[in-house]
Amino acid sequence: MRPGSVHAASAISPRLIFSSGLVLLIVLAILALMQGGSLVAWSDIAAAPFRPETLAQAIIETIRAPRLSAAILVGICLAVAGAVMQTVLRNPLAAPDILAVTTGAQLALVIVTLLLPFYVPSLAATVFGGVFGGLACLTLGGGLRAPPVRLALAGIAVSLSFAAISSAIVLMADDRASGIVLWSAGILDQTGWTKVATVGPAVAIGLFVVAMMARALDLLGLGEDSAKGLGITRTVTVLALGASVVLAGAAVTLGGPIGFVGLAVPNLIRGIGITRHRQVIPLSALWGAVVVLLADVTAQWLSAEGSSIPTGAIVACLGAPTMLILLRFARIGQEQRPRALSISSRLPAGILLAILLVASAIAVVLALAVGDGVAKTMAELAAVFDLRAPRLLVAMGAGMLLAGAGVFLQAATRNPLCGPETLGLAQGAALFSLAALLGGLLPGSFGFQLVAAAGSFAALFCLFAFGVHRTPERLVLYGIALAASLGACGTIVVVEARLQATQALSWLAGSTHARGMDDVTALLPWLAFLLIAAVSFCSRLDVLVLGDDTARSLGLSTSRTRFAAAAMAATFVAGAVSSIGAIGFVGLLAPHAARLLAGPKHARLLPVSMALGAILVVIADMVGRSIIAPRELPAGIVTALVGAPVFALLMHRRRS
Amino acid sequence: MTAVAMAADPAEKSQGTIIQATDVSVVFNGMAAVDRASVAIRPGRITAICGANGSGKSTLLKCLSGLEAPTSGAVLLAGQALAGLSRGQIARQVAVLGQNPETPAGLNVEELVEQGRYPHRPWLTRLRAGDRDAIERAIAAVDLKDMRQRQLASLSGGERQRAWVAMALAQEPQILFLDEPTSFLDVRHQAELLTLLRRLNREEGLTIIAVLHDLNQVVEFADDVILMKKGQVLSTGAPVEIFTPRLLSHAFGCTVDVVPHPHTGRPFCLIDWVADRSDRDGARDHR
Question: I need a surface site. Which of A349, B180, B210, B283 has the fewest CB within 10 A?
Fold first, then answer.
């Protein structure tokens, strides 16, 4: 019995699943070949094997067939890699993207393509990067036998860090901001057969190794001790993981980082009741190909003339439902409640205040003086003041709101891993902001803010409506999947509507670009609300973190308070995101940093968090404005560069 | 502590009841965790709730303390229906110390005990002199004065349990509920905690209701006992009266013998740990 599989209702015949998959694949393949303009007709596809010398045949051979093959190969690679990882780690949440293998490969690809002056074969880079990412995840999560949810969260933390670095490199090296969308979302466009041809042999070898190991994988599924007793050695484990990393690397080389296929497909196959790897592997491969091809056909069908929606974004939209189903039904061992860092130094109030004042002063001066060129004299400062002051104020306000939201969320869920971005609230507000932008609402207007609030509340609803929040780590895992899905929808909206890429990016990643005094005024009511909420709620939050029973016995109505706190957090997030976009990691980190300085009592924690949040965004914005001036790195990318590794550290600390 | 009508000698029957539960049932997913239980708790006494695992002890405790609303039946607290009281009104009379409560990281003893004042503080006010006094008394009562600035995480299990008791005392309740307060403590700390609770009961008139596992602890510690089996109240009364081999064996589903304690003469429960008699004198594994 595999520990991870979704329990099956009744076994459906593997043969039926195989043949239906095959039929679907063929239909989709024909659709894929015919898509994109009316140049290719039925007759051309029927005639294709005979290679007539027509324009249609040329299009099929040089553009569509390579893309079709790439889609199929990517699906096969990801699904098989996921199936193997799930068995070897005995973790139903394992998959190339979850374990940071995909993002590691992607980061390596970005580095060798954009930074290194000499040529490195891309497959070598992606495999190396994949190994690196996987090892980082295992180190952080606690090794091959780490509890499933923890390992998955560790992998996601590593992934977020790598993705932030990748984005920063892409934005610095490529002055088209649109490049980031192409690089980070998984595009299957092929120019000829080159990539497919170079990657093909590696895929074949990887699949061959996995196929040879099908029986060994069956035994590994029985548990480490029994497997050892039956003669399975560590070599088998390493070989299996190696093959899966090669497959994942090949997939990234072909199509960039495409997620969730490796997670969803093998679990689905096992969920139907198929357990033998002799059947699981080929069926996963087939259905993986079907899923990716379906996503690719959908992406091309949705793509307006001239624009192209990343296939990866279509797949990522399915991330949240996949994770939801897995967390609901898969047999995943129990986790412990995560604990916040227990160090807290408790500086005396005077010293703390002094530190915060000095830090804010430095941040303010830097934010005004540094940017595209450093203002050294008062005259120079005066010249840029009108431009930079509003941005500074917007950054401060948004930072305070996000940090406040983080404190409220962490108290409401009693979970130190929660923040506006790890629960998808920020992404929800950003997606709705984009929609509002398309609907013609002016950023900063009340209607716009209202739509953003609808977004964060929608995310909140999705988060708590399905009952996965019973254990804290599951909540965050689902929250991150939700965030990924909402972010992917955002990407699709951006491409579909052909928003100006810089503008769109500033909503998805967060930036203070071109904010004026109007935006500052628009933030004021939200800040007022934040202050009122903080003052009236801080003693309730103190009681809430003592746990449900204790809080109730102290006279607090816990479910109502928790709901109110989460709703307030969603409101703060909406305020921040509607002004500067989904800037990440501020709401997660500022409360932790504040806890280190001021201890756990909310009367001190809240103001200190807000101050730190403000400083964090101001500094991130300053760095983003100046580092590649005159172009700008969005502040959100800078906060992610710092924040994602700290999130990883939080995971690590909790283990020890 | 708020004055409660109590007798100096617990053997003398106290008048009236402070908590009256009538036909209380709690149903989870179609299963009755508590099944038509009726109990009366007398003020100023220590009542123990006993029973096998899954017999509904903790659920009954939650019902009596107002943490959980029963599916049917009514609980009266000093004559008033719990269902009609607000959380705050209940919390000013009743404190509950849960089983292994979560300790938020970084909190120190004093900050934890302060939280006990929450039900007494009007909205948006700081701690007043009266609150401070209550906190001081609570910390003194559990003998943690020297450790008031220590973080909870750095305390031993026994000290941490005392800190939680102090938080409950700062609440200035008339009734203190405890769910398996001794489960995670070694024998010395168990004895210290029970001594403390008994002192609070005898000196300050605090009514105590506790879920306890150790039958001999119950005999020593409690004035009354509620014995439960499969959600139903099997028997109530003084342990000295109701602890008979037949009743206990029936309640726990294993052989329990009761002999007079060599020192006190009260009942002493002998549990047949290794039920197989033929094995008695043979090689035993370390149980």
Answer: B283
Question: In sequence order, which residues have a C-beta less than 8 Å from that of residue B72 and are 6 or more positions away?
Answer: B23, B24, B25
Q: Is the domain of A485 the same as that of A613?
A: yes
- Residue A497 placed within a domain: yes
- Domains contained in chain B, CATH given: 19-244 (3.40.50.300)
| C-alpha distance from residue A255 to each of A119, A248, A299, A461, B270 (Å) | 19, 11, 13, 33, 71
Residue A374 domain-assigned (yes or no): yes
B172 in Cβ contact with B137 (< 8 Å):
no
Q: What is the pLDDT of residue B8?
A: 42
End residue of a domain, out of A273, A299, A329: A329
pLDDT number for residue A38:
63
In this structure, is residue A293 part of a structural domain? yes
Rounded to 5 degrees, what are φ and ψ at A189? -50, 130
Amino acid at B132: R
Q: What percent of chain A has pLDDT over 90?
A: 32
pLDDT at A33 over 70: yes
d(CA A280, CA A269): 7
Instruction: For chain B, give the mean pLDDT.
Output: 86
ipTM surpassing 0.85:
no
Q: Does A337 sit within 8 Å of B92, measured CB to CB?
A: no
**Count of structural domains within chain A:** 2
Residue the block writes with tokens 């068995």: A87
Nearest to A342 among B87, B98, B153 (CB): B153
Structure-model confidence comparison of residues B284 and A307, the more confident one: A307
Which candidate in B65, B87, B178 is best for mutational testing of the A interface (most A CBs within 10 A)? B87
Chain A residues within 8 A of B126 when measuring between CB atoms: none
Strand partners for B72: B25
With CA atoms as reference, the chain A residue closest to B65 would be A553
In the structure, what pLDDT confidence band is assigned to residue B5 with cuts at 50, 70 and 90? very low
Provide the domain limits for residue A110: 14-27+69-329
